[in-house]
Amino acid sequence: MTPRERFNAEAAKRILITDGAFGTEIQNWKLDEAAYAGSYAGSLGLSHDQKGNNDILAITKPEVPETITREYLEAGSDIVSTNTFSANVISQADYGAEHLVREINVESARIARALATEYEAKDGRPRFVAGAIGPTNKTLSLSPDVNDPGYREIDFDYLKGVYREQIDALLEGGEGVGVDFILIETVFDTLNAKAGIMAAIEAGDALGRDVPIMMSMTLTDLSGRNLSGHTVEAFWHAVRHAKPITIGLNCSFGAEQLRPHVKTLSAIADTLIMVYPNAGLPNELGEYDEQPETTAGLVGEWAVAKQVNVLGGCCGSTPAHIKAMADGVRGLEPRAVSRPEVRTKLAGLEPFTMAA
């Protein structure tokens, strides 16, 4: 079976569990600059300070992402993501590491795949690898210059090329070696996401294979919009043509604040729903205090209501949070995929459904 077929078969049986945060888990290692690049700086052609470049650890200190990924698999994750949120030339330019983008992605995919294969061999339960694609720190929809609303730092074709380079590396080696899915996550700009979608489709066409896409939007205000102004429903209308294997929400806020938006998306999306919220809201020091049992209880309400197919955690979530979720939803029936009526549905910032 293809990864899409295997995944859909598992999702029909139970609520699946994805992993939790990488960034906050890496912070717990308290790495200094030398630990990020250290003796590798010269051989890798690095002249910038690498502290905070979490993605580069795949080649300079692979035991960090390996350990974190293993802990999530031990906690019960069915899906593990690559530590590649910023592994693209735009984000890596901050560290002068643009030339390492391919290597970072290839090695990150190798780490996740090896561990997924190891754990699947132990108990026969399928494990999946999602290649994480972050939004970059550029936006196609908004101007960074308040005095020039029409100005853009980059254009669509450039961003598509940036994503294509990353996706090609994540898929390198073929099925069972590279990633199973491309996860376009933390979408604050819907047009950025469309560039990612096009890059993933073109990468799949070039390989002659199906490359399933996972989409995950992030909300920037409690009314339920992302930074480019789209509501949850409008976002779905704007990306549904990509036939994503999952659609959902991540980061944003805690599970408490996401409740109405999960309900909305669950009712309209004719695909699987994946939600991985932050572990509550950060405190005044930017740290997350919400305990695993609390987070698990909140997301468990969505599971009981049959509104989700995949659950996990974002900022502040730990292996303990993921274990609590896995334990809490075990035995619960997954959401049945919605079958909304066939209508022409369009989207500006608001959804538009053509009358019959």
Q: Helix and strand succession?
A: HEHHHHHEHHEHEHEHEHEHEHEE
- State the end-to-end CA separation: 39 Å
Q: What composes the largest sheet? A: 8 strands, parallel
Secondary-structure class? alpha/beta
Rg: 19 Å
**How is the quaternary structure best described?**
single chain
- Overall helicity: 40-55%
Overall, the morphology is globular
Beta percentage is 5-15%
Mean pLDDT: 95
Spans where pLDDT lies below 50 across 5 or more residues: none
Number of DSSP helices?
14
List the strand order in the largest sheet: 1-8-7-6-5-4-3-2
The overall strand count is: 10
Describe the model.
With 356 residues, the chain is α/β, with parallel strands linked by helices. Helix content is 41%, strand content 13%. The protein is built from 14 helices and ten strands. It has helices at 3-11, 23-27, 33-36, 40-43, 57-60, 63-75, 89-92, 101-123, 156-171, 190-207, 232-239, 255-268, 292-304, 319-329; strands spanning 16-17, 79-81, 128-133, 181-187, 213-217, 246-254, 272-278, 310-311, 345-347, 351-353. The strands form two sheets. It has an eight-stranded parallel β-sheet. The chain has a two-stranded antiparallel sheet with strand order 9-10. Helix 9 packs across helix 10, helix 12 (255-268) runs parallel beside helix 13 (292-304) and helix 13 packs parallel to helix 14. It is globular and about 65 Å long. The chain starts with a helix and ends with a strand.
